[in-house]
């Protein structure tokens, strides 16, 4: 029997991936362990190995195909002595893959939103539609599985199915999902939101609740002259960022606490530690601490000291973490990714620093493993190197907090009733108010400020 | 020491219980099922299945009586032998009863023989049945476990239901029958009064009428088969009356006088008049009530409502670890509802992903009288009550080629769509074999098709099913063959 090779789940949360590259072609022989393909997931590129030996009989999903669902058939492996005719025999399941073909890829227009607002009923005795409610394509061209009735309802109500998640078998969008979305306002396409857009002042406030999916592509493009722009399809990372941050701002009640920290003592200690770093035979120091490394450590220690803030929200229970796993936002071309320093409260600064260096480099090469960027209990986003004074960040669940770090700059401060100069950095803590209340957030920042301003305490 | 601890114990082996047990076993749970009387429960011992066997005999007899119209000649007259008709029905039941024993063994499900009583959450005692078994009883399966105490993490009550008795007209097993006696008559009565025209009442009325019995059906509601669409019910009534059935609606049996071998039913009609109907027997078919007694439910504080255990969408009662499914967990009291409810319950227990509560609006119902009646979803009236604007399609059997060829040209298929969305809200049928047709619309509703997909579906020719499509087309003014 031919062996079906399906899209592997490279992480527990992976739902789909892009088939970036085939390393084999039809007719090639492979042994178990051979790398046969590269899969691009939301944030990383992973290699797929053959688990059995055989001959590649058929490549079902072409290289470059986006949004291939996990478990969709991607190729068929023939066992010893089998030829291509065995593929036909192995049944229709092989041919009718759920994966979108490459040809479909370019059809990006979400059909569901195309006729938003049309509410007419099929008149008696005429044929209003040429065929059954056509299955809509997602923004990436992948088919959105949905019931005909769900498609009809979405169309009549100007709803973008791509913004909905389905509760039917295998995530199929059914009527109750559309009903729920209509109730909550999720996925409302731009047609319905047009009046809001016309009133710019009101739009930003109204947008997150009413129009998380934003305007449909067609509705956006209508506002610009053809030829005045280029279209660049989203990659997996961009889609993940959009999805997760929309989800965060929609479901997490954020609030923000800011504090100024004086950095002079920390900068002095950093210089002292770096100059004392042992060197190898090429004269290269064993570590070179950055302010960011010390910020990570200070936040981790603060969470150790204020454990009630080191939590994750779930509907049933508070998840109280035993370690502070600190995600660090790393800007990379096309987006960002947050590698995680696990149990950072227990690690010496030198270890944190070197881990950051390693993961930062691999993040830029998109070579992080999912377990290196998934999870975490908090995060740090540092824009100080770009001269930003202060900003507030979006909590990235399952985190309950995120610390936005501004630039250290010389500012006038009042010391002993006299004006003085100090290097000051403003940090803003965003918290998920469901699990970290105001006072608790303030307590955490107080601890953080303590470590930053008395940095020797981080060493003991 | 015998192993008496299980993951799941199911009390009652009717269609709900035994299907749940099999699914539990498939999911890797160590499963036992308790039964006090007959594997397969009422459904295949004294309900759905043996009645279908009786009705098949009736159908063949009906056909024979119309042989002439098919160009066939029967020398002499075909007659029914009550004893043999009943014997065949019991044989069909016995075969399936044995089949359940096989299925339990195949799926490594322990059968515990006796009556279960909940002792504490997670613990039951099994003792002798407090209810005398209906005779004739199929033999007790081999290798069952006996009386004793058994424990399980999860206990599912699937004890089913029994005939409801009206005060003053209680069944006595002799002159006033329930389905038990009506299913195994030892003589063919000359005349019958059937009290109640739900599925059970009307099926027995239809059977006995085919057997040549003078049958009067008394129904308190305005129509026979009160849950059905009035239009469908009216067509069925007309056909039944044409077969010689007497039907009194908005009428009530107020009193039954018992003679030595006959009864006199006092039937009060809407206008307040009382007519006395003499008959050999009266069949009481006024619904069923849940078997919630003698289970120890009260001691555990299990919530019940109107004779049924109160559950959530996944069969959970208010007592942790205790579940209920099927008739005992409330209407509609149908075998297929029980099965599905059981599967949902056990899959939820086992942590299967994507389990949803049952949508009770999509449970089909079938009645096997002649002509048959089948339906799913909302009636036209109910849809309008819910404020829906509807499109209604109708198609009659008398324009369908296959129906005419079968000599079954009386009947109708009615479909109801939401005018705005094209959602199929309901389908209602009366006529030959409609109980086999309805499932097409049940699938359509579950997949949430609109009229468009149905119109683009190819129905095979020549079949009765073509009428389903024509009915859909009719709802949109596009009917072809009418």
Automatic annotation (TrEMBL), chain A:
Low complexity bias locations: 108-120
Q: What is its EC number?
A: 2.3.1.12
Which top-rank group of organisms is this from?
Answer: Bacteria
Q: Which UniProt keywords apply?
A: Acyltransferase, Lipoyl, Pyruvate, Transferase
Tell me the ranges covered by the Lipoyl-binding domain, including all copies: 2-78
Q: Which residues fall in a coiled-coil region?
A: none
Q: What is an annotated GO biological process for this record, any one? A: pyruvate decarboxylation to acetyl-CoA
**Can you name this protein?**
Acetyltransferase component of pyruvate dehydrogenase complex
Native species: Roseibium limicola
Automatic annotation (TrEMBL), chain B:
Q: What is its EC number?
A: 1.8.1.4
Which domain of life does the protein's organism represent?
A: Bacteria
Biological process according to GO: 2-oxoglutarate metabolic process
Instruction: List UniProt keywords, sorted A-Z.
Output: Cytoplasm, Disulfide bond, FAD, Flavoprotein, NAD, Nucleotide-binding, Oxidoreductase, Redox-active center
Q: Where is the FAD/NAD(P)-binding domain?
A: 6-342
Gene3D superfamilies the record matches: 3.30.390.30, FAD/NAD(P)-binding domain
Q: Which reaction does it catalyse?
A: N(6)-[(R)-dihydrolipoyl]-L-lysyl-[protein] + NAD(+) = N(6)-[(R)-lipoyl]-L-lysyl-[protein] + NADH + H(+)
Per its UniProt record, the required cofactor names are:
FAD
Please state which protein family the record places this protein in: Belongs to the class-I pyridine nucleotide-disulfide oxidoreductase family.
Name the UniProt record assigns to this protein: Dihydrolipoyl dehydrogenase
Q: Which organism is it from?
A: Roseibium limicola
């Amino acid at each position: 029997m031919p062996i079906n090779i399906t899209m592997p789940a490279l992480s527990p949360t992976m739902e789909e991936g892009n088939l970036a590259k085939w390393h084999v072609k039809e007719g090639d022989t492979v042994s178990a362990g051979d790398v046969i393909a590269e899969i691009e997931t939301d944030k990383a590129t992973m290699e797929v190995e053959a688990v059995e030996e055989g001959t590649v009989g058929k490549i079902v999903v072409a290289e470059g195909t986006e949004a291939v669902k996990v478990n969709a058939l991607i190729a068929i492996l023939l066992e010893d002595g089998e030829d291509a005719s065995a593929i036909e025999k192995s049944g229709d399941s092989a041919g009718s893959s759920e994966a979108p073909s490459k040809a479909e890829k370019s059809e990006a227009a979400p059909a569901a939103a195309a006729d938003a607002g049309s509410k007419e009923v099929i008149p008696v005795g005429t044929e209003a539609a040429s065929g059954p409610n056509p299955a809509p394509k997602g923004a990436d061209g992948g088919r959105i599985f949905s019931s005909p009735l769900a498609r009809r309802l979405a169309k009549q109500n100007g709803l973008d199915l791509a913004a909905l998640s389905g509760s039917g078998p295998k995530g199929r969008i059914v009527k109750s999902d559309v009903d729920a979305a209509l109730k909550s306002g999720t996925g409302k396409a731009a047609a319905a939101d047009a009046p809001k857009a016309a009133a710019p002042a009101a739009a930003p406030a109204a947008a997150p609740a009413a129009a998380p999916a934003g305007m449909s592509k067609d509705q956006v493009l209508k506002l610009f002259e053809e030829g005045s722009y280029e279209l660049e399809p989203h990659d997996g990372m961009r889609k993940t960022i959009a999805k997760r941050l929309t989800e965060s701002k929609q479901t997490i009640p954020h609030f923000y606490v800011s504090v100024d920290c004086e950095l002079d003592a920390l900068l002095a200690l950093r210089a002292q530690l770096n100059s004392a770093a042992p060197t190898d035979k090429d004269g290269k120091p064993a570590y070179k601490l950055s302010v960011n490394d010390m910020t990570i450590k200070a936040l981790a220690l603060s969470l150790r000291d204020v454990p009630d803030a080191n939590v994750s929200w779930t509907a049933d229970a508070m998840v109280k973490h035993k370690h502070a796993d600190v995600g660090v936002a790393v800007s990379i071309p096309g987006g960002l990714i947050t590698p995680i320093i696990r149990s950072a409260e227990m690690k010496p600064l030198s270890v944190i620093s070197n881990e950051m260096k390693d993961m930062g480099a691999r993040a830029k090469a998109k070579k992080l493993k999912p377990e290196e960027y998934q999870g975490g209990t908090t995060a740090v986003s540092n824009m100080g190197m770009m001269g930003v004074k202060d900003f507030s960040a979006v909590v990235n669940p399952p985190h309950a907090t995120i610390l936005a770090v501004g630039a250290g700059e010389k500012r006038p401060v009042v010391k002993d009733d006299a004006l003085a100069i100090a290097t000051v950095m403003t940090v803003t803590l965003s918290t998920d108010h469901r699990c970290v209340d105001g006072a608790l957030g303030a307590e955490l920042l107080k601890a953080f400020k303590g470590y930053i301003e008395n940095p020797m305490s981080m060493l003991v | 020491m015998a192993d008496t601890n299980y993951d799941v114990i199911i009390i009652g082996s009717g269609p709900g219980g035994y299907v749940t047990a099999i699914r539990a076993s498939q999911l890797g749970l160590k499963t036992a099922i308790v039964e006090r009387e007959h594997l397969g429960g009422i459904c295949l011992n004294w309900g759905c299945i043996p009645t279908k066997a009786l009705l098949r005999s009736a159908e063949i007899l009906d056909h024979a009586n119309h042989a002439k119209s098919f160009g066939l000649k029967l020398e002499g007259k075909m007659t029914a032998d009550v004893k043999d008709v009943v014997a065949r029905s019991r044989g069909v039941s016995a075969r399936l009863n044995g089949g359940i024993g096989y299925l339990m063994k195949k799926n490594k499900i322990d059968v515990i023989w006796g009556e279960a009583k909940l002792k504490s959450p997670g613990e039951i005692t099994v003792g002798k049945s407090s209810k005398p078994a209906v005779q004739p009883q199929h033999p007790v399966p081999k290798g069952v476990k006996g009386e004793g105490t058994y424990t399980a993490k999860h206990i599912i009550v699937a004890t089913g239901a029994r005939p409801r008795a009206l005060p003053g007209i209680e069944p006595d097993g002799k002159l006033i029958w329930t389905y038990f006696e009506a299913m195994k008559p030892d003589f063919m009565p000359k005349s019958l009064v059937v009290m109640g025209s739900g599925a059970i009442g009307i099926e027995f009325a239809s059977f006995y009428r085919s057997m040549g019995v003078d049958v009067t059906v008394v129904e308190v509601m305005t129509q026979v088969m009160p849950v059905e669409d009035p239009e469908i019910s009216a067509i069925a009534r007309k056909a039944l009356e044409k077969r010689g059935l007497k039907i009194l609606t908005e009428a009530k049996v107020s009193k039954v006088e018992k003679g030595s071998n006959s009864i006199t039913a006092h039937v009060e009609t809407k206008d307040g008049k009382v007519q006395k109907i003499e008959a050999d027997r009266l069949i009481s078919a006024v619904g069923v009530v849940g078997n919630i007694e003698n289970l120890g439910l009260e001691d555990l504080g299990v919530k019940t409502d109107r004779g049924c255990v109160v559950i959530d969408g996944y069969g959970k009662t208010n007592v942790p670890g205790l579940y209920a499914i099927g008739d005992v967990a409330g209407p509609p009291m149908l075998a297929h509802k029980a099965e599905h409810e059981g599967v949902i319950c056990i899959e939820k227990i086992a942590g299967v992903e994507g389990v949803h509560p049952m949508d009770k609006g999509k449970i089909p119902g079938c009645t096997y009288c002649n002509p048959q009646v089948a339906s799913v979803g909302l009636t036209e009236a109910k849809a309008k009550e819910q404020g829906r604007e509807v499109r209604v399609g109708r198609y009659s059997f008398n324009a369908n080629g296959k129906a005419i060829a079968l000599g079954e040209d009386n009947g109708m298929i009615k479909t109801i769509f939401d005018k705005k969305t094209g959602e199929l809200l309901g389908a209602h049928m009366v006529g030959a074999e409609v109980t086999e047709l309805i499932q097409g619309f049940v699938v359509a509703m579950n997949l949430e098709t609109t009229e468009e997909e149905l119109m683009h579906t190819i129905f095979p020719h020549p079949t009765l099913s073509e009428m389903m499509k024509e009915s859909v087309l009719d709802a949109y003014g596009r009917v072809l063959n009418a």
